[in-house]
Amino acid sequence: MTAPSLVIAVPSKGRLKEKAAALFEAAGYTLRVKGHERGYRGQLDGLPDVAVEYTSAAEIVHQLRAGRVHLGITGEDLVREALSDVDSTVEFVAPLDFGHADVIVAVPECWLDVSRMADLEDVAEQFARNHGRGLRVATKYMNLTRRFFAKKGVTGYRIVESVGATEATPATGTSELIVDITSTGTTLKANHLKVLEDGLILKSEAHLIAAKRAGWHPRAAELRDIIARALAG
Amino acid sequence: MTAESAKAFEALEGQARELVALFGRAGYEFVAPAILQPAGVFLDQIGEQVRGRSYVFTDLAGEELCLRPDLTVPVSRLYLERHPQAGTEARYCYNGPAFRFQPLGPSATHPREFRQAGVECFGAADKAAADTEVLLLAVEAVRSAGLRDYRLRFGDIALFYALVDALDVPERWRLKLRHYFWRPPSFHALLDKLAKAERTEPNDVVAKLGETIAGKSQEEAEDIVSAYLDANGIPIVGNRTLREIAARLLDQAADLYADALPKEVATIIEYYLAVEAAPRAAVDKIGLIARGAGLDIDGALATVARRFDLLEEAGVDLSGAILSTEFGRKLEYYSGLVFQIEAPGMDETEPVAGGGRYDNLLTALGAPRPVPAVGSAIHTERLLAAVGGTPS
Questions:
Q1: Distance from A205 to chain B by nearest Cα, in Å?
Q2: Prediction pTM value
Q3: pLDDT digit string (tens) for B49-67?
Q4: What is the ipTM of this complex?
């Protein structure tokens, strides 16, 4: 077997995997897993010199940064969180209209005095005076949070890392507010949280992404255009 | 330039031994606090910016730790461990590594691993005497290492606080001015906003509650807010209390009806923050600005002037020194004197030594009573480079 001309990484599980597969199917390039059903390699019907790698959505970001794959399908939120040098390492080729999620700043609904990011610095001052420490922000998006808060001039806080059930942390007392993804807002509502008016950090969706550091020989570039056209439908 | 080669390390350690010996003779006990520190202490006190400058990580037990970014907080924690009642006077000195992430990459003048030698003085009741003692020791230390030429830069946080206290403004604005002092980019915007009486459009709830709540007592406000929350089925969630929410709503309601910060007041603050001159001239200038505005900050100014007297009596040459009101706005734990020693040819951001008074830090770290504290640290690599002790 000859070496593939282009490698594309697609999510290995969950909704992102299903949606990506459906998209390729609709475009006429059916995704097939090689070997047994749980395999981590695959191919696209009709494009024999394309190799498909099934990887976790987060790992795809690192593969793209390193240029170990040419293309990848993953969420913009994961890319912007993990890469500090987005512009020099990857290119967003096409939004794919699935995996929609907004990264937002949310505070307890009972904070009637708070509706904007600017309120947070004042609240931080008051909170430090009464509790002897800054506000705690629970999130798995440490970098997005830091950049956004800095841009908004909010400094009196610290991040506590949270990998699951972030929206419950204000109620349990391990945080005062959160940065998390939301699609419908029902989980926030159930946890008595509200999104700040200017608290939208990123409107994220799945993208077809190209790695700038991959080897872009003519055939790879050609395949990239074919796939981009097919997925952008 | 870090202690990466054996030769540089020898030179650094040789210099540090001398420094520590000098501190010892001055009555400072040598201590060696832990290099690994709980990250929470730093993040809670200095805020999230410190994470961007520190090596923070989670160990296998899930504890969040950091490589100490400075030695003042670790030495303060050590003091509290030894003296939980915080009633004892103590003087410590140290020499050891500290670590800071350098976003532009490590360099000779901004290494990611560097060694600090310094002193911390806790619990000395005569603050002016302790300030002078620590300052003199820092000057003597760099001199003894061979630094002939240097410039002293002074600031004083207490002076700014005194100015704000003397202003005729509502307490809630005073608190804001003090808080935003440490955030220079936002500070100017705040002044502007107050002076123009620019109200950020109140959110619906504030607008609705504003009319009923304005001018009410704290208790009445709490009742109104509580009733509103009940009526809308909103529970109190989290660590922030009803009392705090109501208090801030009261402030916001008051702002809705408040007059603007008088233009002159904003101007006085701007003038004050622009003062940078030789110590005596700067004190005079600040005095003129304050008296011109009818503000009495004579007490705080006298403290500053007396400090310069003491230094000169002790033989410190202040002819090249600078007093800058802007200086020291980066580390929020400072509360009074701040100073640094700059070597010729080296940038203002690369002092060979620095320090100041931090009277609020120990209570923030859990001390049961306030502990007056002042200290200084010498950036030993820079000092060695400044006296030509290392190849650059």
A1: 28
A2: 0.81
A3: 777 788 988 888 878 899 9
A4: 0.86
